[in-house]
Design goal:
The complex is a heteropentamer of chains A (372), B (238), C (305), D (291) and E (235). Chain B is an alpha/beta fold and 238 residues long. Chain B contains nine helices and ten strands. In chain B, strand 1 and strand 2 form a beta hairpin. Chain E is built from nine helices and ten strands. Chain E is globular. Classes of the chains: A alpha/beta (372), B alpha/beta (238), C mainly alpha (305), D mainly alpha (291), E alpha/beta (235).
Chain lengths: 372, 238, 305, 291, 235
């Protein structure tokens, strides 16, 4: 048994706590990828010159960063996994970054986009989906500027992810001589926006941008409906990523005409040269994982694809070897999630998020793209 | 202030909200004396003890113990200075054994005092040293309070209704014990409702009513005082 | 003498286990967290076991230590070890400021300390203080990251903590604390400076949590405010202490090994049911073994350290 | 803006009082610190959610059903754990741990049963109009919830301070053995109190989707701490104090959210802390003599 | 005269700890019984067992012709027993509420008249109706305790050390009060240390180490040398 006949991918997920919803989605996406390749006899691993089955070793961190730290350690030191994939989001990824670096283990980061993770000195990190949060709002800023929106209100939740969006947006707007008429940071745990709505309304804005996590977006949009406060333009992030969840909670009429960053499956990339295109994914995924398709399932699947390409390309199974392999195909890969391209720190820069508007169509919603 | 006074209380007032429990109490205790403090229920005897022993702070007035002002002295300090007390509702360290109860007092207050064994047999608990004190009955607990006070080698001992709930025989034993302590030079303030108990122990009593002193003198004179009879003793002398 | 021998050997075995543990089971983070919880449990033990004050907000000191140590490292570029001492000192000062809490008793104190820790948390994590604490965005000590050295420092802190509990278990100071716990009024009459003793226990446990927090921060090196102010940290430490039995040296050790072991064992193999099993276990413990495992030994007449 | 803030503070204050009053009742009567309080609120919330989505049941109807269900549940829970717990050395502190365990169990089961998704009820379920109070428009559902809360609190106060069962309940609160000596069936009275306490938590839960936003199985923990803050501000064991606590909390929270949103989470704890230090027994607390 | 309360072979205690051993005891209707016994003899335990606060380990309790040993305390109290414990009152209820509690099983109107009767009898209490019982002095609590016990107009009254801590005037008053009750044919069992209560006694029982060592009238007791020595001291 010199050459292994299976490869172990270690990852974490959260079955409870504040990140559970997103974490489960992206975990399901990764599992779907593994199931898909295993049905075809596994992944071709260049270093072994053969196809090898994929096994996923996953622990539940319950959304706790402290628990996650121990579990990442467990995956590296006890389970000695071949490939390490982080849990959803910045908080649960943050603890993995130094641990992976310390143990010289390459970390495939699915969605942890906190800008501070990516440094030149750490070669053990690759972000597979989403650009780092600092470049997301470019399209939004461009759109607002182009529309000559002078009175913009920006509300954000005080966490890494939303704050860097906020900072970027505000600086882009300022560069175009637009000073927001209202800015405010609220705790990520906020679930009641009624009072804040009134405060924003008092500044009489033409557009209101709310950067939050899904729960915040839901609560914010709900309170707009319930309060009868009306703003001409409203932007939130997560309808574009988790439309089904949002629709369930806010309702079609509550979401109609709001702006968002559409992502797959709302956004379809046509030049896919690796893995399933969106249409196939949408057909197969729900029957395998019994979970509706949303952006995070796509992101989880996409992480699997990047790993697959890495294994197919890398002549060795050492962690740094794999990292070099990632560099070698960076920029050439087009998946269901768009172009995969990383910079020297391992951060994703290939994906760009457009701005779209949700339009009521029949009983559901469709996207109208406004700005690429 | 005469140096003969172990304790002097001058014009002490204590209120609880709008209720005045002590109103200008003044008295003193001489060295080696047993002073009886009697009065109807709710007249403020226990409150007076609480103020002296540092459990409550007086609103007004002055307190001196062994010539030192003790108005703001915390209870723990007072026990080091040689004042200690028992409680009307006994409060031993219920989870600790009798021995530990006595030991604690003895180690923390380094004054000349009886040895542990001696105290234990003095209060009649020599056979229960390793019993958890919560298991003792209420009289035994009161005696343990006394024992703990003795372990600190007090010069002044405040005894609050030690006799309540004892039968006549036990009362006799207790009286005899307290007399022995007095012979050793320990001054005492004794609060008690049983007149026979007070009569056997004290030469001088203070009768309180509604937070005020209404009489000072011997018990025999007190028994003849009209007001004392009216508010406290009632018809027959017990 | 025999007591000292027993306590000494418990102490030694425990420390030795942590010293060589990573060679037995190489997930060193698990061992590290074990030490963290054990030290915290002993900190709770010093306060709750000996004085009866159950600090729900104990994590406040832990978080304070973590943040203070990190800020000393990042802003003043102090040596990690000095920074950790600084973290302990800061927690001590916070403890001193919060000492009026000791005027409360029972559930009031528990909840009051919880409120205090939440206050610290919401202050530290407030975006308005981003310039000082980096607000909700957490700390990054990558430049100082050194799991081996931080592991060793944690071992030393654990040793000091265990030694302190062992001392309290057998000294007259410990006896005085227990007397205070039973009846404060009587304790005062027995000559015990009740307030001073309580404050001492409170500060001691604050110091321990601060040191542990600082070391934890160094070891984990990237963290967010809710990681180091997570209420579960208090609760775990409390449950470990109660499970083993308070006012003893061995109790929290047993509690930590059994429960944290279980936590990792179930947590790793059957995660979806972990929380359920844990909850059931706690309920059973309280109902059927309210004085902890140690009470089993005591009932049999063994005097355990 | 000022008027709006004050009025919404009062509306929410009433709701917060309802949220906390059950916790206080249970603490008062049996000195049990119910750390699972928030989880019972969560269960009420899910009951409302499922009743609404599956049968389109009006939350006010759900409230009645839930109330009786939880009285039974609470009674059963009482007989299952409390008598045993009371025999221990320090029941008050142990209850803290026991109910923490219970909270873990409930959360775990809820995650298994309901999944992790955030849910919310169509906000129009309690009325979709706008109600004008002193010239300020408020969501109809807020006004409905506040009125129901007020009614519930009044009923609880009548129960405690006017009915004989209430005197018995308070006697048990004060001294179990003495109450038993007076011929009161301590267990039955306590079981009622536990049942009513949990039922009040659950009906607060039924309304939570309209007042605090979307619901999920782990929402309880924060609600427990908030409820504690409220009852301690008022004074532990004094149900009337809860109303004071709820109002103070509601008003200060709304004030901070309007003018200093980033500091608003600090409010309950800061209030709690200040009040504890100034008046350790709570605003309406009375102290007993100790020697 | 019928029996109001009797026990046969009664054993009782706290958990595994047995305190009372094999007690045969009879109180006849309208009789006043004083229960003597040194500290820790088990008087309180006995009264608590009679009223149902402690489950007996074995034996029978018969009350007003019914076997009650398996009944709960509230059921026995509703039958017409009233019990004043050593503590006597509920500390955090006001005086008025304590009295309401005493008349818990009375119809509202009857309770009101009884309440007024108590206030007439104890003007000190009437003056501070809304004061918490917990802030009263020891003796004041006793007074409230007895008033509370009388609220239910009991047929059988169990009193645990009613005079402990009472000032002489109040002791005299208490005895007068009990004498009045005796005339109203209330059956009373009084655990006491104060020998003045023997004036009231129809019969005396003495308890020693958890056993009933004597039951008889007062003359017999004073004739018995050992008992006299033990309970009246050397006088
Ligand atoms: N902490 C307190 N709060 C309110 N009132 C109090 C307090 N302590 C004492 N009192 C009141 O002060 C008065 C005097 O009480 P105290 O206990 O001193 O009486 P006493 O003379 O010892 O009576 P007894 O002989 O019955 O023990 C009583 O009316 C009592 O209600
Ligand atoms: N809750 C309890 N648990 C265990 N033992 C107890 C308990 N209460 C009392 N005892 C023990 O039971 C025995 C009898 O106590 P009891 O109170 O019945 O005596 P008593 O005759 O009423 O004495 P006293 O004159 O002190 O009131 C005592 O030895 C006491 O220590
Ligand atoms: Mg008194
Ligand atoms: Mg007794």
């Amino acid at each position: 048994a010199k050459t292994p006949n299976q490869l172990v991918i270690g990852t974490l997920y959260a079955s409870s706590g504040s990140f559970a919803t997103s974490s489960i989605s992206s975990y399901d996406g990764l599992k779907f990828w593994a199931a898909t390749v295993d049905r075809q006899g596994g992944v071709y691993v260049k270093a072994l010159h053969k196809k090898v089955k994929i096994v996923i070793k996953a622990y539940n961190d319950q959304s706790s960063a402290t628990t996650a730290a121990t579990l990442y350690n467990q995956l590296i030191t006890m389970d000695k996994v071949n490939v390490l994939v982080s849990d959803f989001g910045s908080v649960l990824t943050s603890v993995a970054v130094p641990i992976a670096q310390e143990h010289h283990q390459l970390l495939f980061d699915v969605t942890g986009t906190g800008a501070s993770f990516f440094t030149k000195s750490n070669p053990y990190l690759v972000l597979t989906s989403l650009p780092t949060s600092a470049i997301w709002p470019n399209s939004l800023a461009n759109y607002l500027v182009k529309q000559k929106t002078k009175r913009v209100a920006v509300l954000y939740d005080t966490n890494d992810f939303d704050q860097s969006q906020y900072n970027t947006l505000v600086s882009r707007l300022k560069a175009a001589h637009i000073t927001p008429v209202y800015t405010g940071g609220v705790p990520t745990s906020t679930t009641n926006y009624a009072i804040i709505d009134h405060a924003i309304a008092a500044s009489n804005p033409q557009a209101v941008v709310e950067f939050g996590y899904p729960n915040n977006d839901i609560a914010f949009l709900q309170s707009l409906n319930a309060n009868g406060v009306h703003f001409p333009k409203v932007f939130t992030i997560f309808p574009g990523q988790q439309l089904q969840l949002m629709q369930q909670n806010v309702g079609v009429s509550g979401l109609a005409n709001t702006l968002t960053y559409p992502t797959p499956p709302l956004l379809q990339y046509n030049r896919v040269n690796f893995g399933m295109p969106l249409s196939a994914f949408e057909k197969q995924f729900p029957s395998v994982e019994h979970h509706p398709v949303d952006f995070l399932t796509v992101a989880g699947y996409n992480a699997g694809l990047i790993i697959q390409k890495t294994l197919e390309t890398s002549p060795t199974l050492t962690q740094l070897g794999m990292r070099h392999a990632v560099n070698s195909f960076s920029g050439t890969l087009n998946t269901i999630d768009g172009q995969f391209k990383i910079d020297s720190t391992g951060a994703q820069i290939g994906e760009r998020l457009p701005v779209g508007q949700l339009i009521k169509r029949g009983n559901g919603l469709a996207v109208k793209f406004l700005q690429h | 202030m005469s140096p003969d006074y172990v304790l002097s209380v001058v014009d002490v007032t204590k209120t609880f909200g709008s209720f005045t429990a002590l109103q200008g109490m003044s008295f003193h205790v001489k060295k080696g004396e047993i002073l009886g403090l009697v009065g109807p229920n709710g007249s403020g005897k226990t409150t007076c003890m609480n103020v002296i022993s540092g459990s409550y702070r007086a609103d007004r007035g002055s307190l001196h113990f062994m010539g030192k002002n003790i108005q703001r002295t915390p209870a723990s300090k007072l026990s080091h200075m040689g004042m200690n007390r028992t409680f009307q509702i006994p409060r031993p360290f219920k989870g600790l054994t009798v021995r530990e109860n006595l030991q604690i007092a003895a180690t923390f207050v380094r004054r000349e005092a009886m040895g542990l064994e001696e105290i234990a047999s003095f209060i009649g608990l020599e056979d229960s040293l390793d019993k958890e004190s919560g298991m003792l009955n209420s009289t035994q607990q009161k005696l343990l309070d006394l024992g703990r006070a003795l372990a600190t080698g007090p010069t002044l001992l405040l005894v609050d209704e030690l006799g309540a709930g004892m039968n006549p025989h036990e009362l006799d034993i207790t009286i005899e014990r307290l007399q022995r302590l007095a012979k050793q030079g320990i001054s005492m303030i004794v609060v008690e409702h049983l007149m026979s108990f007070v009569r056997q122990l004290t030469e001088r009593v203070i009768v309180m009513n509604a937070g005020k002193e209404i009489f000072e003198g011997t018990l025999d004179d007190a028994v003849r005082n009209e007001e004392v009879v009216r508010v406290y003793l009632g018809g027959g002398t017990p | 003498m025999r007591n000292r021998l027993k306590a000494g050997s418990v102490l030694l075995v425990t420390l030795l286990l942590f010293a060589v543990g990573t060679h037995i089971y190489s997930n060193e983070n698990m061992w590290f967290q074990g030490m963290v919880y054990l030290a915290l449990a002993q900190g709770i033990n010093i306060l709750y076991g000996f004085t009866g004050y159950l600090p729900f907000g104990y994590v406040g000191f832990f978080g304070t230590g973590a943040y203070a140590a990190s800020l000393y490292m990042t802003d003043f570029h102090t040596q990690p070890i000095v920074a950790i001492l600084g973290g302990g000192a800061t927690a001590l000062i916070v403890g001193l400021l919060l000492s009026p809490l000791l005027r409360l008793s029972g559930a009031y104190f528990s909840i009051g300390s919880l409120a205090a820790s939440q206050m610290i948390y919401y202050t530290v994590s407030n975006p308005a203080l981003q310039a000082v604490t980096n607000g909700p965005y957490g700390m990054n000590l990558e430049a100082f990251y050194n799991p081996t050295a931080s592991y060793a420092v944690m071992l030393v802190i654990l040793a000091l903590t265990l030694f302190t509990t062992a001392y309290l278990r057998y000294s007259r100071t410990g006896l005085a604390l227990r007397a205070t716990r039973e009846d404060a009024v009587s304790a005062a009459m027995a000559g015990i400076p009740v307030v001073r003793m309580r404050i001492m226990a409170w500060l001691l446990s604050a110091l321990i949590a601060g040191l542990v927090g600082g070391t934890f921060a160094w070891h984990i090196s990237v963290f967010y405010p809710n990681t180091v102010f997570d209420l579960n940290v208090s609760i775990f430490a409390i449950v470990f202490t109660l499970f083993g039995g308070g006012a003893s040296l061995l109790g929290p050790i047993i509690g930590m090994f059994v429960l944290y072991g279980l936590y990792n064992w179930i947590g790793i193999s059957a995660p979806q049911y972990f929380q359920l099993i844990y909850g059931v276990l706690i309920v059973m413990l309280v109902l059927f073994l309210p004085n902890g495992i140690m009470s089993l030994f005591r009932k049999k007449g063994y005097d355990v350290p | 803006m000022v008027a709006y803030t004050i009025l919404s503070g009062l509306l929410f204050g009433l709701y917060f009082s309802l949220m906390a009053i059950g916790l206080n009742l249970i603490f008062g009567v049996m000195r049990m610190v119910n750390l699972a309080h928030g989880d019972f609120i969560m269960l009420g919330a899910f009951a409302a959610f499922f009743a609404y989505t599956m049968w389109n049941m009006n939350p006010l109807v759900t409230m009645l059903v839930v109330f009786f269900l939880f009285i039974i549940l609470g009674g059963a829970l009482y007989y299952l754990v409390v008598p045993r717990l009371l025999r221990a050395h320090d029941p008050e502190m142990l209850s803290l741990i026991l109910f923490f365990g219970l909270s873990q169990i409930i959360q775990a089961l809820a995650v298994i049963a309901f999944g992790n998704n955030q849910r919310s009820i169509d906000y129009t379920a309690l009325g979709s109009g706008t109600v004008y109070l002193f010239g300020q428009g408020f969501e109809e559902s807020w006004v409905v919830v506040a009125s129901v809360s007020l009614l519930a609190i009044i009923l609880v106060s009548i129960y405690l301070y006017v009915t004989k069962l209430g005197v018995a309940t308070r006697a048990v609160m004060s001294h179990r053995e003495e109450a038993a000596s007076a011929g009161i069936s301590v267990h039955r009275v306590s079981a009622y109190a536990m049942g009513i306490g949990l039922a009040l938590a659950a009906i607060a839960g039924v309304f939570s989707p309209f007042m605090i936003g979307s619901i999920d199985p782990t929402m309880g923990t924060d609600l427990t701490t908030t409820s504690f803050a409220i009852i301690i501000i008022g004074s532990l064991g004094n149900p009337i104090g809860t109303i004071v606590g709820g109002m103070i909390y509601g008003l200060s929270l709304m004030y901070m959210e309007s003018y200093q949103p980033s500091w608003s989470s600090l409010v309950p704890y800061l209030l709690l802390f200040i009040i504890l230090l100034l008046k350790p027994s709570g605003l309406l607390g009375r102290r007993m003599r100790n020697a | 005269m019928s029996q109001a309360l009797s026990t046969c072979g009664l054993s009782s205690g706290y958990g595994p700890l047995q305190i009372l051993w094999d007690i045969d005891f009879v109180a006849k209707s309208a009789e006043t019984l004083v229960l003597l016994g040194s500290n820790g003899a088990g008087k309180t335990t006995f009264l608590k067992t009679l009223v149902g606060l402690i489950r007996p380990l074995s034996g029978e309790i018969t009350c007003l012709e019914k076997r009650v040993e398996t009944w709960s305390a509230d059921r026995r109290i509703r039958m017409g027993i009233s019990y004043m414990s050593e503590l006597g009152v509920v500390p955090s209820l006001s005086i008025a509420e304590n009295l309401t509690l005493g008349g818990y099983f009375q119809p509202n109107a009857a309770r009101k008249t009884q309440l007024n009767a108590m206030y007439d009898r104890f003007p000190d209490l009437a003056a501070r109706k809304r004061t918490l019982a917990g802030s009263l002095s020891g003796g004041q609590r006793k007074m409230l305790g007895i008033a509370k016990a009388l609220m239910s107009k009991p047929a059988i009254l169990l009193l645990d050390e009613p005079s402990a801590g009472l000032s002489p005037l109040y002791v005299t008053q208490m005895i007068e009060l009990l004498r009045g009750l005796k005339e109203e044919s209330v059956t009373m069992i009084i655990a006491e240390q104060n020998t003045k209560f023997l004036e009231l006694a129809d019969r005396v029982s003495v308890m020693e180490n958890g056993r009933l060592s004597f039951q008889g009238n007062v003359e017999d007791l004073t004739q018995d040398d050992t008992l006299r020595h033990a309970y009246f001291g050397i006088h």
